[in-house]
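Researcher: I'd like a candidate sequence for this fold, 334 residues long. If you have to choose between options at a position, lean toward the conservative one.
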């Protein structure tokens, strides 16, 4: 199969492109390189450009008429930045995605896998969420994801566009071959921050929010190895039509997580266990837009994709630490 991957030079996009290749498929990368580094593209088929460029999309389909599906990952993703720059987030994540979806449908390429987010879920007692639970996105970033889910669901009813919406929980770790991983010089992701503190690149790791109604007061998340997330995309691409046939709908939402909740303090303890020494810690109030958190009920992913996360939290931490040692060689900076 041949699969268009928007945002394929990014963190999750590049790892998913690798997983597609390992499974015998051919990724075609479309990325503006606004954030993702060109080196992550490697020797893959690559188009540098904007997802809203209809002429470019037409050229890609003309040159690759055998495209089977599109995995749409291109997006702005930093929650505090979305609070400060809502226009840029709605423009890039919503308006441009609308153009992409309409053009794909018009070009006869109606299968779309969409990267959504667990940040959509409303707070829930017990923190385990199923796909039908109430949503209450509390940042511009999360609201862009919610809007695009609604867009896809409405377009799937009205046209021959078909959508599998994957709600990611908290991907961590790196490509198993250490060819790509977190690339930001100062990652906003919690594990990237922990690695920096452990390696002395930051004075301390900051726990943002210590009075949440969780078992230890810190936020709760479902940390899933990015390679497991990538494998789920491969399964969804390979079984796209069967998945939608099984639910009898033109679109479906599927949680991607491990099925276990880990608090920030528990993550720090697991990290220190893998790292072999303590990490300096300080505490601060929650950041704008931060959610208390949730973890995934993954029954639907198991049923429809025959998929479950196979790698542990410790595996992901070890992977992130190994990438922390390797990334200067690949990216040219610590």
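Model: Candidate sequence:
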């Amino acid at each position: 199969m041949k699969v268009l991957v928007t945002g394929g030079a990014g963190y999750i996009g590049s790892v998913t492109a690798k997983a597609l290749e390992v499974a015998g498929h051919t990724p075609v990368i479309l990325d503006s390189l606004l954030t993702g580094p060109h080196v992550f593209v490697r020797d893959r088929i690559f188009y540098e450009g904007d997802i809203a460029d209809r002429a470019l999309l037409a050229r890609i389909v003309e040159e690759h008429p055998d495209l089977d599906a599109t995995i749409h990952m291109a997006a702005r993703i930093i929650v505090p930045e979305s609070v400060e720059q809502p226009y840029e987030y709605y423009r890039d994540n919503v308006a441009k995605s609308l153009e992409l979806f309409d053009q794909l449908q018009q070009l006869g390429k109606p299968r779309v896998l969409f990267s959504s987010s667990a940040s959509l879920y409303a707070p829930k007692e017990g923190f385990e969420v199923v796909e039908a639970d109430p949503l209450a996105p509390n940042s511009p970033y999360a609201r862009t994801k919610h809007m695009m889910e609604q867009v896809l669901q409405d377009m799937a009813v009205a046209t021959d566009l078909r959508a599998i919406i994957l709600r990611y929980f908290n991907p961590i770790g790196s490509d198993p071959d250490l060819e790509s991983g977190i690339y930001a010089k100062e990652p906003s992701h919690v594990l990237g921050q922990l690695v920096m503190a452990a390696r002395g690149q930051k004075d301390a790791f900051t726990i943002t929010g210590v009075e949440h109604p969780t078992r230890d007061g810190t936020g709760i998340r479902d940390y899933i190895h990015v390679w497991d997330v990538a494998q789920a995309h491969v399964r969804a691409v390979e079984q796209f039509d069967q998945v939608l046939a099984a639910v009898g709908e033109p679109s479906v939402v599927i949680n991607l997580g491990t099925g276990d909740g880990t608090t920030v303090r528990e993550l720090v303890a697991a990290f220190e266990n893998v790292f072999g020494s303590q990490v300096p810690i300080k505490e601060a109030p929650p950041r704008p837009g931060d959610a208390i958190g949730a973890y995934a009920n993954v029954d639907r992913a198991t049923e429809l994709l025959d998929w479950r996360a196979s790698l542990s939290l410790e595996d992901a931490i070890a992977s992130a630490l190994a990438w922390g040692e390797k990334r200067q060689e690949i990216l040219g900076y610590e």
